What we know:
alpha/beta, four-stranded mixed beta sheet, 11 helices, binds hexanoyl-coenzyme A
Amino acid sequence: MNSVILESASPGVAIVKISRPQALNALNTETLLELKEVLTKIAYDTSVRAVVLTGDGEKAFIAGADIAEMKDMTMAEGVRFSQLGHEATKLLELMPKPTIAAVNGFALGGGTELAIACDFIIASDKAVFGQPEVGLGIIPGFGGTLRLAKFVGYPRAKELIFSGRRVKAEEALRIGLANEIVPAANLMNRALEVAQDIASQSATAVAAAKRLLTEFSESVGLNFKLDSEAQSFGQLLGTADQREGMTAFIEKRKPAFVGKQGD
Ligand code: HXC
């Protein structure tokens, strides 16, 4: 991996660090692909019970999507790039374990969008959020038009996205973007403390709570339908009828089901 670092902080907490210091951790295609790979791995790793997402260095969490890469994109490339961001942000939003953004500096454009795909944000007193895309002739494309309002409400989300203005830590706390602010030097300690506290609870109960709390978001309706399918599928495995049905197929005979509706 070139620009995503996976670290483990015991017990049960993973740290995912975006690391492209030469571009203030800006997200290019390679970084997003690496992020997807790391998040997918974490999602299926039952030893990980909480995740902290942060940026390498003190200056930036993520200074947005990579403007140099976006500059000459065609429409089709832009659509694909946005979808790639959606794939990464959906992993953060939907994985069955809490994701916490530890925001340590500039979180602009795609940086804010990754932070708000996490379950909540802990910010350093140096954090600066914003959706400056309209100033680049684009819009937030990694889910910001859907998710920002979940944190700050529609009128404020509109004001921030239409104006592109920056939001410092104090304001972020006041408007509900950040759950808490801590001195920059304490940011990771505090984020890990919160993550470890969550990791010591029942992982199955926390996963159920996350699923329900996230389910109320309109933005993930489709994902939750698919998730419900997977849940129902999983619940059928190990039943008498599933074993009989698959055994009968292998033995080339008709199944003799015993299960009743509602079992
Ligand atoms: C590419 C970036 C970058 C970015 C910073 N850099 N942000 N490169 N994409 N988003 C690079 C700079 O070009 C520079 O490279 C180096 O990082 C340091 O940045 P400076 O600008 O010199 O630092 P500073 O003056 O301290 O300003 C920090 C900053 C500024 C305020 C964060 O860099 C900035 O405004 N960045 C862009 C923020 C932004 O607009 N983000 C939204 C992008 S659109 P060199 O080589 O010169 O040292 C977006 C859309 C998402 O995110 C959805 C897509 C579908």
